[in-house]
Amino acid sequence: MRLSGFLGAGSATSMTSFFSWTFFMVFIPLCVISYTLVPNKLKKYHLLLASYVFYWLVSGELIIYLLLSTVSIRCFGLWLDRMQSKMKSTFSTVPKEKKKETKKRYIKKQRLIILLAVFLHIGGLLFLKYSAFFTFNINKLFEHFNIPVVLAIPRYLLPIGISFFTLQALSYILDVYHGVIKADRNIGRLALFLGFFPQIVEGPICRYSQTAEQLWNAGPVKYENLTFGLQRFLFGMLKKLVIADRLSPIVIEIFDKYNEYSGAIIALGAVSYTIQLYMDFSGSMDAVIGIAQIFGIRMPENFERPFFSRSISEFWKRWHITLGTWLKDYLFYPIVTAGKMKKLTASARKKIGNHFGPLLAGSIALFCVWFCNGLWHGSGWNYIFFGMYHLVLILSGSAITPAVNKINNQLHINADSFLYRLMQMVRTSVLVVIGELFFRANGLRNGFAMFGKMVTGLLPSLPDKQGLINVLIRTGRNSKDLIIVAVTLAAVFAVSVLNEKRISVRDELAKRKILIRWAVFYLLIVYIIIFGAYGAGYKPIDPLYAQF
Amino acid sequence: MTDTMKKALKCVLFIAGLAGILFVLSLVFYPKNNEKEDGIIDVAANAILGEPENTIDVLIIGDSESINSINPLRIWEQQGIASYCCGTSLQLLSYSEYFLHQAFKSQSPKIVVLETNEIFRQVTLDDLLLHQLEMVFPLFSFHSRWKVLSFRDISPNVDFTHMDEEKGYYFSTVIRGADDSEYMKETSEEEPIAAINMFYLRRIRSFCKEKGARIVLVSTPSIVNWDYRKHNSIKRISEEEGLEFIDMNLMREEIPIDWSKDTRDGGDHVNYFGAEKVSAYLGKYLSGTGLFENRRSDPAYAQWEVNLKDFNKRTEQYKSGNGS
Q: What pLDDT score does A183 carry?
């Protein structure tokens, strides 16, 4: 039996899921054992090799995009570095009166380099991911204006994780430009920063300053890191296999056949999808962070209990954090700090006051952020609408804040009381669920149809037991599935409450006696094995964010 | 004892403890009967577990092609050979191997017929790993039985009582004809077979050899699923591996399938009328091996006669316009 038959290009696409048997029963153990066996000096090369083997197995020949991105950011980084050094050396020789002009000239040159880098990286992403969407819409326009031209819709194979590693690549170049980091000559370190195997599929979107050095200086596997990493991985597995994957067929059924269901069932579908997405994505993040921890790498968190948020703005500081901070640092700030925008803000401040002035000017930057956020998630109008929806919520939230504060003061309402905070959390969650309905709907038209049916039909159709029974029968599920989902959600919620109080369950558990610890771990493993949605009768569900 | 050794020992003990728990839970979760209510999936195929010991002469494994094409009751009627079809929809070779192991626990078939279409349905690494786990700890196979678990499951004793009246065959009289003008156009090209599938095929062959059973590769007629490329591949591997191979798709005279009415879904599967022709040929082939005696007068097989009578009654009802 030839091994190449098993390990051919793209032969293990199921490994895009961290909870596939191949990944966690073969790839990870082999990786950890071989990592332990290689000398410390070579560990970084081992991680790099493992990352490229992983990418080869899941993406095959499309690995070329990752390689090109790595080579490209190295070249651009060094080019910028040379330009910055040249500027410094020229600076010391030119007379004082010409310094400003020299600086301007060099900054302009650097901006051109950045522009070229953005054009290549974002252009590549746009071309691969969005050309079908753009062509489709151009055809629609032609049709609308009776122009007898139909463009062929291109279809390209999308490299796994391209949306994630492209943003990482750009953050590196922009950080070099801003002088946050020095350009790296070491292509191995850059390749590992960009291609580290746990993070490449779904992020988190790391900065060079956060992980590059850690990865390149990775030391031996420590027992504590191994156990803590595995515990985090198991917690992620619980979220994904027991909750998200068990809800998946219910979500598919309701969203695909919403016409056959009442408003109450559509609302159930929207809530189920929101839970599924959160459990799927945050579960995968637990796996990524857990695996990285085994190697002693500390990855940035991507979620901080988003459903405890009191406003939509806060929600986005807790949900997909690394995407939010990327857009804030590399899109929002450059726009609001641009010369023209500063002038606009100052002028608006004079005309409409200190609150609404900056808000109005900032809304232009926010529009760009949320348009890109929506489009980043996928090539569809529903994703763009999703972005715009959150933009409107954030802007309106900011606009009414002074009025709400005033009313609260006049009515002597304590905004920090538990009930008030709970009301805010529920309100935020409801708004998020509505957004996710549009996000998940099969097209924007269906999204509006579902939303309309949900709003008009929710109360009259409650509780719609028969509708629920129909959903369960059609998906081969029963009430016991819902009970298991509810019980597991309650457990995850309890852990979230403790985390919100800055109590680490893993730390607390580590203080207990070995018998208690082991009993908890055995219980968790057996719980996942018994209640996990896998094997006969279940279809493996790819991680939801891997497709974005 | 050094700290590292202590930690290594802890890891080993933890894994051993987990294995123990999984072993005990596997006993609890293993179905105690083979009825649908007991959490059994693919009930018809698993009903072989309910057949009396050592009564099955021929075991058939494969995907939906096998259960649509081969009617064990017709083979019984014409040749007196007791065959059983453990085919299931979209069956993978890993699942076929599972049925093989299950069947040989209580049966000793002399011939195993493997329908070849599934050889081209790739077993993934994930399927392979889960399958290996299921073999060691049946809990992984039957974990979804938590919904039907009862106190009875605490006892490890099993009693399989359910038998399938049609011995795994899928009866369908639906007619949706197909165009066979492009069917089996000759070529020298081959359809590739995945390495994992070859691995399983060889394991199935070794298992059958060990149990003293002959393995016969059979390609049942299908316009949608079969072509000359697949024929060439199976022909080559059958020669390389020393296996018998019957390609019914090339036997237009011996098995005269009329594609305008012998298929239920446009050439994907044959219907009852097609299965009659396939089963008649296969029965003759099996009889011709000289391995089997006609058991129709054997009182131990009285139930087969009852099942055959019921089946014929059903088909008669259909022919007279009263059946479905």
A: 93
